[in-house]
Every structure is written in structure tokens, then in C-alpha cells.
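Hey, can you fold this?
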Amino acid sequence: MDVDDQYTLYVNGICVGSDDNWSTVEVYHVPCLYTKKNVFAVRGHNGGGPGGFIATIQIIYDDGSSEIVRTDTSWAVCANEEADREFMRMRFDDSKWVAATDVSGMVAKGAWPGLREAAE
């Protein structure tokens, strides 16, 4: 996953990592996921110019089955710096947030070199 310019990643309300170098792709291994529902939340910050967040999440369940989740327009976003401090928790209601914008075309055209691997 990667964010231009910096981010903190939360899974089910727990901080699992952060980075402030948009030109590197990070990989996280997160144990103890729930069986039916998990919340992947990112607090990102763009210092200027175009910004974006792209990730491919592979969830491997205890029974050996797996699922792939990719960032897309089904994700909800809030550009407000004062976003609710509970946004990363399971019970948070994001119904007032807007759908994310698809940036995959910008990645394919060469914006953010190196991010193509995060989308695959």
C-alpha cells in the first residue's frame, strides 16, 4: 500500500503502521482479524500536488481460504482534517463521507512511479 504523502494505517482500531515516503510501497502482516468483518482505515496527508491512496489487501483466514480487497470507489473518504477521532473503529458511521476517487488511471499513466505494484 502507499499514500502520497504520508499515512497511518489502522486495522480494527489498532495502529499497525505508518510511512512518510510516498515513493515506497509498504507491506503489512496483520494477525488476529475477525472472521466476518474488519475495518481497514487510513489517515493520510498530502503535502501538495496530486495525492492518492492505493492498496491491495490479501486476507488469509484460519481455514486457508483467502480474499483480495483493493482500494476503489467503494471506499469512503473525508477530506476534513477534523475527521472524527473514532473513524478507524468498527462502530464508526461513515455514511456522510463521499466515495473515493479512482486514481488507478493516474498510476497506469506513470504518476507515482513504483505504485503499480501496490495495485497488483
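Oh, and this one too while you're at it.
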Amino acid sequence: MSSLYVLVPLGALFAAIAAGFFVVAVNGRQFERLDELSGQLPDEES
């Protein structure tokens, strides 16, 4: 039971850090042109 006092705040901290990285990526316009860039990927040639 005492391990929950450590694991729950660590899990919340990890989730907050992940959410922060996502917000920074969205605000940096990293996800703006995904449709255009997907057309520039090289095609597989077999």
C-alpha cells in the first residue's frame, strides 16, 4: 500500500510531462502539413 504513495505521483508526473511535450509539439506547428508530407515519401519498388 505504501508503494502507491510513490507510484501514483510518479505516474501523474509522467503523464504531465507527456502532455507537455504534446502541447509543445502542437504549438510548434509540427503537425500542420502531414497530408502534404505523406505524398513526398518514397514509394517501395520491388
